[in-house]
Structures are given as C-alpha cells and as structure tokens.
C-alpha cells in the first residue's frame, strides 16, 4: 500500500518534472521568421572556418558591414568562426547545414581550397555546389638573406648546392606553392615544419635561423620592405598575377620583380611546361589568385545570388573603397559576379592525374599521408 | 621620443578616451566573467560599433576590452574552482581552497590587487622596454624557447606532490595527451584513432575544466554543503590587500616573469601562471600551505598574468605576431581600425604605442579596481547551498568547454578528462604536474625539432641556451632541496598538492583501486610507445621517448602498489583519507559522473537547451529537493539566459540528433 502510494507520488513528480521542463522551453519558442529576397530585419550568418583575429577573420569583418549596407533591407551580417580540421570543419558544416535563403554564406581561403584540391579525407564539401560572389586575390614575394650573396633572380642557379632553409607551416599549407616552386627550379630547400604561421616564419628569417622566406603581399609591404631598405633582405621574385586568359603577369604591386614564369625561363632557358608547372599554377590560383572568396550554398535561387552579386559589386566599386581597403586587401582588383565565378573555376579545377601527381610528390618528398 | 611620450599622455588623459576605455572595460568584465568567452566574443559584440569611430577612441574601447579578460575570469577560478581561461588555471589551486575555507573575499581582493599591481608594473616596464625589445625578441629563437619549456617542466619538481615518481608520471600523461594530433615535424596524426576531433589535439580549455573543475564539483556535491565551510565570511577584503603588501617582492618577481615570458612569441601565455606559481613554491620556506589555500599561491599567478598581457603587446605591435589568443583578436581589431603593426610602432608611430601601453595600464586599474570593489559582495555566492548552485555551474562548464571548438566532442572530451581528474584527485596523482606537461608538450617537441634542424646539436652551446639551462639547474636544485627537507622533517610536513588532507593522511590498506588506475596509466604509455613505432622517425621520436621513460617511472609506481608497500608515499586514496569510505551519507564517486554523462548523452540526442532544462529540473527536484516553483524559476532563468547569450554573441549551442532530423524553431535549433 505504502509502496504503491510512493510509486504514484514519484510518477506524479515525474510528470510534473516533464511538464516543468516543457514549460521552460515553451516559454522561449518564437515564430519562425518568413524568408524573402528582401532581407529587412534578418541576420546573415557568415561562416569563417578560421579562428578569430586571423587574416580571413579580419577580411570578413572588414567586408561584413560594407556589404550589409548594400544588401536589400540592410540585414545585419554577423561573422561566425568555426575553426578546426585545417578549416575543413567549418566548410563541412556549411555544406551540410547551410540554408539556401541568402542568409547563410561562407568565406573560405586558400587553406580551405588546398585540402579540397588534394582530396584530403576530412573534406566533405564540394565547391562545385557553391556559387562564388566575390574573389579576393593576393600575391606573394619570395626573398632571401643577403648572406647567400645573390642580388636577383638571375643568380638563383648559383644557390644550388648551398644549404637553404625555409621555415614552414606544413607541406600541405599555402607553403606548398613556394616549396613546389623551388623544386621546379631544381633548387634544394630544406623545409622546417611546425611554424605557427607566416609571421613566425618571418621571425625565424629575421633571427637568421633560416635564409629563404616568402610573405603574402600585405605582410611583405608592411613588414619586409623596411628590412629591404636596411639591406637585410634581398627580394627575388613575386608569384605574379593571372590575367584574363589565365596567363602569369607581373604583380602590379611589385612591377620591378620578375614573376615565377619569368624566373623559370631564366633558369631553364625555355617557356614553362610540364605537369609540375601545371600543378604549381593550379595551386597558385587557389592559394593566391583567388585566395579568399564569398560563397552561397547549393540551390540558392538566382534572384538571391543576383542580390548578393549586386551588393558586393556596389561595395567594391564605392568611391572610398580603395582607400579603406588597402590595409586589409592590398592593391588587387576584387573579382565579383561572373569574374569571381571564372576565377574560382580556374582555381578549383584540377585533373585527377594532376591530383595524383601532387599527392605522390607530397608523399615522396615530405612523407605526407593524405 | 619625449615628444611621443607627451602626445600619448595627452591622448590618454582626454575625457572621451577615458570614457570609451571604461566602456570597453565594463563590457570586457561583463563578458569575461563567463568562462570560455572572454575577448573573442567581446570583439564580435564590439566590432559593429568600432566602424565610423575615430581610430584612437575605437582603440581605447578595444584595449579596455582586452585588458580585463585575465582579470574577471578570476571570479570563477576562486569562487567555483572553474578556471575561466588558461591564464587563471594556477589561481584555482589555492584560490578555491581559500574560498572553501570561507576566505573568498580575501582571496579575491588579493587576486585583484595583484592583478592591478601586475598590470601597472607591466606598463612601466613596457614604456622603456619597447624601445629595445626588437633585438631582445630576435635573440630568442627556437633553441632558447625549447630551453624555456624545460624550465617550465622543472616546476613539476615542486608541484609534483608527495611522490616524485607519481608526479613525473602524471606529467608524462600530460605530455602524452598534449601530443595527440598532428606531429609538428611531419603532420602525421598520432593516437587519434581516425577521429577528426582528436586530429586537432584536445583544447587546453577543455582539459583545464575537466581536470580541475569537474572533480571539485563532484567532491562538493558528495559533501552536499555550501562551497564555504565557514558560516561567516569573516576575514576578508582588507586582509587580501595586506597580503599583497606583505608579499610585495614575490609579486614583483612574478610580474617580471610575466612580462618576460609574455613578450616571447611562441611560448603562449598559458605557461606563465605555472612558472610564477612554481616560483612562489620554490622560494618560500614554509610550503605546506600551497595547494590548501595559501594566499601566495593566488598572488603569484595573478600578478604575473596581467603583466603578461603587457608583455604580449610587444611581439604583437612590433612584429604583428600575437603572443596570446586575446592578442590575436586585438591585432585583428587594430588592422580594422587602420593601425598596422610593424617596426614603425617604435619609430614614427611611437605615440600610438605609448597610447596603447598606458591605456592598458589604466584599463587594468579600472577593471581590477571594479572587481576589487565588487569582490566583497560576490564572495557571498559561496554560501549558497551547493546543490542549488551545481546545475548552474555544470551548465557553465559545459558551455565553456563547448566554446573551445564548438563541437559536441568537446563535451565528450570534457567528460573523459573529468573522469581522469576525479581519479587523479582520488589517488593523489598531482594534477598541476599533469597540466604543465599538457601545456608544454607541443611547444617542447616543436622547438626541439626546429632547434636541431636550424643549428644541429650545436644549439646546446648558444649563450641564451646556456643561461636558461643554468636557471633551470638552479630551479631543480631548489626543488631537490625542498624534497630532502620535507623528507627530513618526517611526514608531518609533507604537502599534498590536491585535497586538503590532514598532516598525516590515513594510508589505505586495500590498494586494489590504485593498482587498477596505475595499471591503466602504464598501459596508456605502452600504447603510446606502440603508436610511436607506427610513425616515421621524426613523427614518433618525441612521444616514443616520453613513453619509454614514463613506462619505467609509472612501472615503479605500479610495482610499489602491486607489492603492497602500504607505507610508501605512492600509496594514497582520498576515499580513505577523507573518510568517505563506509560513510553511507556520501554518494559513490561515480554517482555524479553518471549525472553529467547523462547530460552529455542528452545533448547528443536532443541538443543542449532541452538537455539542460531536463537536467535542471531533475537535479533540483531530486538532489536539491527544491519546490516546483523554485525549480521552474531557476530552470527557465538558466535556459533563457543561455539562449539569449548564444543569440546575442552569435554562438552555437550543441545541437543533437533531434535538431538534425526535425526542423526546430528558435532557440531549439
């Protein structure tokens, strides 16, 4: 009798408990917002698959309020950082969960594009499903220590046989581009991995721990050019930029420096050719020529894509954009709409044979297991 | 230079500058008090307002925000034993026992006064140091940084508790756990079992929360009392400030340590508080109180971690290399405002640098001052019955852990590390030694590998290496002297780094549970060694070496236990020492682990909010025996708070299978 009453009481308590938790939750539930091409009162979530405070994060936070102004209804754009897995985690999540209503976008960088090109097992996203609306290019400059005794790219061949060291983040990071470049030039460079970023690599160079290095354009301009003036750095070449037809041209930021294809010709005495160079160019495109981009997810309706394209175009064509953006973006033309689509098409198109080649190269050269 | 000095002084002292600075400080305090958030979430809140602001004003707000993050996280460290960020882990060791003793107000005021002192001292040093910093930083290469990690590791000698073999084994577990994930030299994945989460390594925040906070919560729940054992919060506030004045030289030395280590890019701020704490233990004569609520154990890490923020400014401003997580955010903010760090920060932009340095100092004064002022009242939280507080704290811990990588695996890792922490606490395997190993593992391996690649073994002869090596030797000498001293004075002066046990702990006679645990540790090292042999030479040599040594050390521990050496210092079981065993009123050790496990499993199925709501209601009704009304009020306020926080800060809460399959309305999605 007693037990029964007890049972009843505890059952009653359980029901009450459930009711209480249901009430807690119900008190919060609000109506689902109605979606429309007009984003008035909405909130755009911009996934950045990197940590707060890094280059891509700064890039996104620079663009967010400017694009917001130009979108119909001026929605708030908030940056949501989902770092991890070498940026594959945020991209995977975007692929899986993003809604096609124009309120979910992602900003990726070369570090997201490389694992995709390399066929990394962690990649569950497909760029072919996404529509780019902006491509932000950058460039890079390769430089050496004056102790090596060369003055320009023409003398690069004399470095063969010397002990060259390069401080790297990892063979599958953006450093793939300089490492492969040196390999193509038949110059043996010892890569020392485990650097926390390009900044750390530059510090190792300044300390004299390594004697060759490269930096992306904005870092080079702000932090290396002063060292060039002090005679502590000898600039050798830039990677170049891609023109409309996909050919390498000199980087307008560094008109005095030869680009990689020119250097190839100086060293080998012929126009660039072969699989290695083709692969280098593909990774250069994905890592520099179209380094960062804004993408809309699979199935986004054309009118939403157009609204975004217009907003981004208006943003980069604004009068004060160039002056405001220089510190964050460097002096490179931002590709929008069709041009962005074209840039990423070039950057993310790699044949299976070429992919196999680069995977083999990474494994044999750097013991990388992909 | 004098020119820059005066311009900066003028800027800093204007009314608007101070006003915005204070605004940033208040925002930083409000956010920073929540573990796991801090400056990063603050930045996303602040950023929309930075646009269109005048750069120096925007800068003021930004500095205010960043400066107080290592200040306000002290609240949870001291009051609840929850390390709010990596910089306040060492504070937990003595701050929380003080709170338990009813001296929360004293601990807090000592902590904030030390923070204030450290921050101000850091600014003074920076003013001169920034001018000569460039060559100094360039003098610290990989070789020197590797030696610094060794110096940090030598602190295990003083923080290793009663038994040196056990202390070193615990440190080894930390080293091994810290090596999980990609190898620095080759990128090979070690000990990851093909799990994507483990490939990135286990986040420090999760480890800190699991190893310190969860075991304390469980212990307090089992005792089922308020945090503070004393009914009155008696001795307090003024004493804390007096404590600082009494230990001013210790605070000064720790502030110097903070400045120097903070200024070196690459080592990370998470080591600073441990080095300072170890230094405090080394240099005091009566060490018995450490770990049981010695105020010096609060003063040392707190005066170093605010000085560290000042130090970390140097590589950030001069090289554009952030020395800590909050500095990375600060750097991003600076670029957005339009200030590019670089060599010009000590030449043409010197006035900006000084503005930043002094703003940081003022922000410290305002922030630590406000906390100091508040601590008297906030300390009263420790008198609330624990069963009522616990669900809030568990919610906060889970939320903080989830912010580490925003993955449900964070919660699983938290639970796993929590169980390890519970067992380590029970068998007195020193958790600080474990954490030091964990914090230093990746830096040690990376810098050793790089140093050898850069200079060959010749790196050992570099002058900087020799100097740091000598300091390390002195540090080990102090530790050894400490060990022999306590040996001489018999066991009555022995210290226990963890629980507040009596002078002579009861030795358990049934060593079964200890044997199992030590055996599991031994097997873990064996697995680590096996795993190392699966890697290439460069990828496996570090973990293989660690495991090889640790197999011997943990083997000794295991041998002593298996042969039933009851009187050996290795033998310890808190269940016996604290008298829990045989006490019917105390829940079993795993009882509350199941509760938390239930919460995590719930998150997997129905997501965080629903799971938390059910957890709250169940816990309050069953464990705290609260009334329905009270339960409802507490539960809904917690749920509403979490949902609002997540929405405003654009943070995800863990979602479960339910959210994956069914579309749920906000906030349940």
Automatic annotation (TrEMBL), chain A:
Signal peptide: 1-36
Keywords attached to this entry: Receptor, Signal
Lineage top rank: taxon: Bacteria
UniProt record similarity statement: Belongs to the UPF0065 (bug) family.
Identification of the protein by name: Tripartite-type tricarboxylate transporter, receptor component TctC
From TrEMBL, chain B:
InterPro entries tied to this protein: DUF112_TM (IPR002823)
Top-level taxon in the UniProt lineage: Bacteria
Region (Disordered): 485-508
Chaperone keyword on record: no
Residues annotated as transmembrane: 20-47, 59-84, 104-133, 145-165, 196-214, 250-268, 312-339, 351-378, 384-404, 433-452, 459-480, 516-533, 540-562, 592-622, 629-650
Protein name as catalogued: TctA family transporter
Domain DUF112 intervals: 18-435
Pfam families in the record: TctA (PF01970)
Keyword annotations: Membrane, Transmembrane, Transmembrane helix
């Amino acid at each position: 009798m007693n037990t029964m009453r007890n049972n009843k009481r505890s059952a009653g308590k359980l029901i009450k408990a459930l009711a209480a938790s249901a009430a807690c939750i119900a008190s919060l539930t609000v109506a689902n917002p109605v979606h429309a091409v007009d984003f008035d009162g909405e909130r755009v979530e911009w996934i950045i698959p990197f940590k707060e405070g890094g280059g891509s994060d700064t890039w996104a936070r620079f663009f967010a309020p400017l694009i917001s102004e130009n979108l119909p209804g001026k929605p708030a754009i908030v940056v949501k950082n989902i770092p991890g897995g070498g940026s594959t985690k945020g991209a995977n999540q975007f692929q899986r969960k993003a809604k096609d209503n124009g309120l979910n976008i992602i900003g990726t960088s070369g570090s997201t594009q490389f694992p995709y090109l390399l066929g990394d097992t962690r990649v569950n996203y497909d760029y072919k499903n996404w529509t780019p609306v902006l491509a932000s290019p950058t460039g890079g400059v390769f430089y050496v220590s004056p102790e090596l005794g060369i003055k320009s790219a023409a003398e690069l061949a004399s470095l063969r046989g010397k002990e060259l060291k390069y401080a790297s983040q990892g063979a599958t990071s953006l450093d793939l581009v300089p490492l492969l470049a040196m390999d193509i030039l038949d110059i043996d460079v010892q890569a020392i991995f485990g650097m926390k970023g390009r900044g750390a690599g530059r510090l190792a160079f300044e300390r004299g721990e390594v004697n060759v290095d490269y930096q992306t354009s904005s870092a080079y301009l702000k932090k290396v050019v002063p060292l060039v003036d002090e005679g502590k750095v000898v600039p050798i070449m830039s990677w170049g930029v891609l023109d409309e037809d996909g050919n390498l041209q000199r980087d307008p930021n560094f008109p005095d420096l030869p680009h990689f294809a020119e250097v190839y010709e100086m060293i080998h005495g012929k126009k660039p050719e072969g699989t290695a160079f083709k692969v280098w160019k593909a990774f250069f495109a994905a890592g520099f020529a179209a380094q960062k981009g804004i993408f809309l997810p699979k199935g986004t309706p054309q009118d939403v894509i157009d609204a975004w394209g217009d907003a981004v175009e208006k943003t980069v064509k604004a009068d004060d954009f160039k002056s405001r953006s220089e510190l964050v973006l460097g002096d490179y033309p931002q590709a929008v709409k069709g041009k962005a689509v074209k840039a990423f098409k070039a950057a993310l198109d790699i044949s299976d044979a070429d992919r196999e080649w680069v995977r083999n190269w990474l494994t044999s050269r750097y013991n990388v297991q992909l | 230079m004098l020119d820059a000095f005066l311009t900066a002084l003028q800027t800093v002292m204007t009314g608007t500058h101070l006003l915005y600075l204070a605004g940033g400080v208040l925002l930083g305090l409000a956010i920073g008090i929540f573990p796991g958030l801090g400056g990063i979430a603050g930045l996303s809140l602040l950023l929309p307002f930075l646009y269109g602001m005048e750069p120096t004003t925007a800068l003021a707000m930004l500095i205010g925000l960043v400066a107080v993050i290592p200040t306000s996280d002290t609240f949870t460290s001291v009051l609840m034993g929850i390390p709010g960020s990596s910089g306040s882990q060492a504070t937990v060791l003595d701050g929380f026992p003080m709170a338990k003793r009813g001296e929360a107000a004293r601990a807090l005021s000592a902590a904030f006064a030390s923070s204030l002192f450290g921050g101000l001292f850091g600014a003074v040093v920076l003013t001169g140091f920034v001018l000569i910093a460039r060559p100094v930083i360039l003098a610290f290469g990989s070789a020197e940084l590797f030696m610094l990690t060794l110096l940090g590791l030598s602190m295990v000698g003083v923080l290793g508790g009663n038994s040196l073999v056990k202390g070193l084994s615990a440190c080894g577990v930390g080293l091994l756990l810290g090596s999980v994930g990609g190898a620095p030299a080759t990128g090979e994945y070690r000990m990851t079992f093909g799990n994507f989460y483990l490939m990135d390594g286990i986040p420090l925040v999760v480890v800190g929360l699991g190893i310190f906070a969860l075991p304390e919560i469980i212990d307090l729940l089992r005792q089922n009392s308020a945090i503070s054992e004393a009914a009155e919060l008696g001795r307090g506030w003024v004493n804390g400030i007096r404590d600082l004045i009494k230990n001013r030289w210790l605070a000064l030395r720790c502030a110097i340590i903070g400045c120097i280590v903070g200024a070196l890019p690459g080592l990370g701020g998470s080591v600073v508080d441990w080095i300072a704490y170890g230094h405090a233990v080394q240099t005091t004569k009566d060490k018995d109180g450490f770990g049981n609520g010695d105020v010096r154990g609060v003063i040392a890490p707190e005066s170093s971690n605010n000085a560290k923020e000042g130090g970390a400014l140097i590589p950030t401003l001069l090289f554009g290399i952030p020395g800590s997580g909050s500095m990375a955010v600060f750097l991003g903010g600076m670029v957005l405002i339009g200030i590019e760090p670089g060599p010009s920060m000590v030449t043409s932009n010197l006035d900006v640098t000084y503005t930043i340095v002094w703003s940081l100092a003022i922000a410290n004064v305002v922030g630590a001052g406000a906390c100091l002022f508040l601590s008297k009242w906030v300390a009263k939280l420790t008198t609330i019955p624990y069963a009522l507080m616990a669900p809030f704290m568990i919610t906060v811990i889970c939320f903080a852990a989830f912010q580490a990588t925003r993955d449900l695996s964070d919660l699983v890792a938290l639970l796993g590390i929590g169980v390890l922490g519970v067992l380590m606490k029970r068998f007195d395997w020193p958790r600080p030694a474990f954490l030091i190993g964990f914090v230093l593992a990746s830096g040690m391996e990376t810098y050793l590998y790089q140093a050898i690649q850069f200079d060959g073994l010749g790196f050992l002869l570099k002058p900087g290496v020799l100097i740091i090596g000598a300091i390390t030797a002195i540090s080990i000498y102090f530790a050894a002297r400490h060990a022999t001293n306590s040996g001489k004075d018999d066991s009555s002066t022995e210290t226990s780094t963890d629980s507040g046990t009596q002078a002579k702990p009861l030795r358990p006679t049934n060593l079964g549970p200890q044997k199992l645990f030590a055996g599991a540790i031994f097997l873990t090292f064996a697995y680590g060694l096996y795993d190392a042999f699966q890697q290439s030479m460069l990828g496996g040599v570090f973990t293989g070496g660690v495991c090889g040594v640790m197999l011997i050390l943990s083997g000794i521990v295991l041998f002593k236990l298996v042969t039933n050496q009851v009187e050996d210092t290795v033998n310890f079981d808190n269940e016996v020492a604290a008298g829990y065993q045989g006490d019917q009123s105390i829940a079993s050790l795993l009882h509350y682990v199941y509760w938390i496990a239930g919460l995590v499993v719930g998150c997997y199925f129905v997501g965080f909010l629903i799971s938390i709501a059910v957890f709250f209601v169940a816990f309050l009704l069953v464990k705290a025996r609260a009334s329905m009304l009270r339960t409802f009020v507490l539960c809904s306020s917690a749920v509403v708070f979490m949902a609002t926080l997540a929405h405003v800060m654009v943070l995800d809460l863990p979602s479960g299978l339910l959210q994956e399959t069914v579309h749920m309305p906000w906030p349940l999605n």
